[in-house]
């Protein structure tokens, strides 16, 4: 299967149409050599007796009818070995750090088979990120996929970096790795990430895949698959707990739309292909824990909502697959609050299985519910104040309004390097609730108030 | 079974074209060296268009395509109950044994265990004339579920011999005069509805023990209902409550394109649920299909059909079956994806033009029927829809609402207020109302429907009043309207709200539902009568019996207490001035 063809009869966008004689497999890896000897790689999208359609990852620039095409007879595989930790690779898996190619212990098919639901373990181990709005009110558990929905110009990357730096399990020293996939981010952003990884030494336990904004869009379609294959290797072959951060899913979906258009497919909602749900699901669903394995994959996809619109197909479809979402709010950001995570529309669907006695602390659920309830009420009251003025509020309402402001300043707001333990987070919550009369703490059981309320604790 | 073979001509994603086949539409074929399970979905010239249920990476033109000469079938026989399947009826635990933690390709695993021996007890005897669907014998499949071994729907004859004893599902248990040997197992093409003698009118309610459902938006046995599966609306608790308390014999749950971790949760939790009526594991009368969103899209498309086929099989034994499909939107998306691969002309929002027809075909397989044998069985379907962006005008929701007769509008606002079940009483509806009225009149009380309508009117008025209250505050309302607000609050908090976790309140029999509502309405009549006499509202609203009424629903033996409260109410109002 090493026959080379010089039978390209059409080039359209990122697609090559090649005539051939040997049978070529679907999804097979293709090597293309330009007349100048430059090597490009591609993948078979459509294959029939006469013509093969190839999508070229590095772009079709420089290719002509005289270029040669070699079908490798194998699907795309990711070379893997423990040495991959600490490496920086391109969006198509080539070394980008000037280091040698990876000498594989094993090569894995990147398409990723589905985890058998019967082999899945229910995620229930608490991960402490050190960020109060996550740990306290939208708790992350191991094996979860929790995306950050953000907008252009918001500090979602800083939040992601802080999570990557600080995420840990309580009281256990376990081997932990970060897989970072950048898709279509700017050079500047990439430098920001790399500088931070180097500054904090995080690179030593990370694998980085970088596809920058000026790298070919098609390559982006490969990046998460390579990253997740690496994550599966680290998690299920090397027993590590892997945190996968990928940014920006919106660029990935744009690339998908671009390819769909080039292939003249029937478009779905807003021009995105009809299979976007399945394609996203295949990536997101590679998070999880397998019964009997020590490792786990937790995913933090970041996506910027075009026009801050949460009903846009990308966040909408993502929301139906992921287990909740963290919403980065422009309003909080404008107020100078970092991290500007708005807890009201945010949600962690797996929170309940990872909190409470034995995981965090017995009062976690109650405190979270109570904070949530008064913060939401306080935000609603702001609207009212704008109409009737603060003076028209009842005493109770004024307390709630003040609570909401204090909540943003003390609970939500924290330093970029501030790593709060979950107990600190809960105590900050209690201190805020202290400003309210005890009778207003309707969501918290009396025995928890007696045990954790600062008023009673001081007496001890 | 293999009747012929052809060759792969073209591959693009899950859609493959092949030449040299003689298969018919929807016949099952095995594609490539690995024998990937696939289905013929189109024939154009000399080429067959095939959808593959598994990933096609690496398949090459020229590889063989084997025919099986039969469509995608479900294996039907003892051993289905308690199973956990993927969309094409492969048992997931066995797949773990066969291929490890990830689902690999080209695996074939029987839907039911072909080796396991079952004790077969004949009911038909030598010389009997047997018709399609007639019971030949029985197998005790689970402690409480007797599995009828029936004549296949397309066979009849006279029994030459029938054996009793222990057999596996492939062993011959019965021979007909014409030489036909019958095993216990039946194969049935999933896309074809199993026949019944006749469909019956939806005149019997499906008892769920949930006041808001039974009382306001009741589902008929054999009926169809839709629930929106939005974020955090309490759908899961609702489905579990329905599975636990509905008066059905068999529960079929189809998880279609949902989250892996959620399915893992379900697979861990479902076997632990205990059937409250029998104290046996609920799993003993359940069948679960789990085809997560990342499993092949064609298998997702098939999962709904496989699920309903097993449901029909148990219906044919005379059982009442409830099927939950979660979510039909993911199923429709699978259709859309395959349709776009086939380069079909898209309809609304890219969905195929036949979306409505397919949804209708599926929901039409529900119903209360007289089986071929003359017994009565039913399939009720509860289908979840997940409208993108919560937009109910999108095609899947609209097409579903056109077919299903009941809509339970799960409302996240109610969830946030901790009101359960979070079924919005203003947006929900049931079109079985009129058909079920005679049953309630005959079996519960002649006043059932009258009271229900009165309660509904009060809630409707309450909604209008609440809008005014938002603007001017409740003190500004006239006294009679303040009373209405209070009565509505009683209906909402004492009657519509129901705790799924309270041992008594979780299930409420019809009689109790009726009595409780009647007592609230009595309070209303007394209150308005007192108001007319000139009693001030705060005196009326301060009656101690009102608060006593709130507790009655939590009592198992509620009748003496309710009678006491009612008597107290009488005397309180009598002495009120």
TrEMBL record, chain A:
Protein role: Component of the A-type ATP synthase that produces ATP from ADP in the presence of a proton gradient across the membrane. The B chain is a regulatory subunit.
Keyword Disulfide bond set for record: no
Protein keywords: ATP synthesis, Cell membrane, Hydrogen ion transport, Ion transport, Membrane, Transport
ATPase F1/V1/A1 complex alpha/beta subunit N-terminal domain: residues covered: 9-73
Family: Belongs to the ATPase alpha/beta chains family.
Gene name of the record: atpB
Recorded topology in the membrane: Peripheral membrane protein
Subcellular location: Cell membrane
Domain ATP synthase A/B type C-terminal: 354-452
Provenance organism: Candidatus Methanocrinis alkalitolerans
Record's protein name: A-type ATP synthase subunit B
Keyword Cell membrane in annotation: yes
Complexes and interactors: Has multiple subunits with at least A(3), B(3), C, D, E, F, H, I and proteolipid K(x).
InterPro entries: ATP-synt_VA_C, ATPase_a/bsu_AS, ATPase_F1/V1/A1_a/bsu_N, ATPase_F1/V1/A1_a/bsu_nucl-bd, P-loop_NTPase, V-ATPase_su_B/beta
Taxonomic superkingdom: Archaea
HAMAP family associated with the record: ATP_synth_B_arch
Domain ATPase F1/V1/A1 complex alpha/beta subunit nucleotide-binding residue range list: 130-348
Pfam assignment, any one: ATP-synt_VA_C
SUPFAM superfamilies hit by this protein: C-terminal domain of alpha and beta subunits of F1 ATP synthase (SSF47917), P-loop containing nucleoside triphosphate hydrolases (SSF52540)
From TrEMBL, chain B:
Protein name per UniProt: A-type ATP synthase subunit A
Segments forming domain ATPase F1/V1/A1 complex alpha/beta subunit N-terminal: 8-69
Span of domain ATP synthase A/B type C-terminal: 438-533
Oligomeric and partner information: Has multiple subunits with at least A(3), B(3), C, D, E, F, H, I and proteolipid K(x).
Family from the record: Belongs to the ATPase alpha/beta chains family.
NCBIfam families registered for this protein in UniProt: PRK04192.1 (NF003220)
Enzyme class: translocase
PROSITE patterns referenced in this protein's UniProt entry, alphabetically: ATPASE_ALPHA_BETA
Catalytic activity: ATP + H2O + 4 H(+)(in) = ADP + phosphate + 5 H(+)(out)
Role: Component of the A-type ATP synthase that produces ATP from ADP in the presence of a proton gradient across the membrane. The A chain is the catalytic subunit.
Record domain ATPsynthase alpha/beta subunit barrel-sandwich: where: 110-191
Subcellular location: Cell membrane
Keywords assigned by UniProt, alphabetized: ATP synthesis, ATP-binding, Cell membrane, Hydrogen ion transport, Ion transport, Membrane, Nucleotide-binding, Translocase, Transport
Presence of keyword Membrane: yes
Highest taxon of the lineage: Archaea
Record: residues binding ATP: 229-236
Topology in membrane: Peripheral membrane protein
Main location: membrane
Occurrences of domain ATPase F1/V1/A1 complex alpha/beta subunit nucleotide-binding (ranges): 209-430
A Pfam entry, by short name: ATP-synt_ab_N
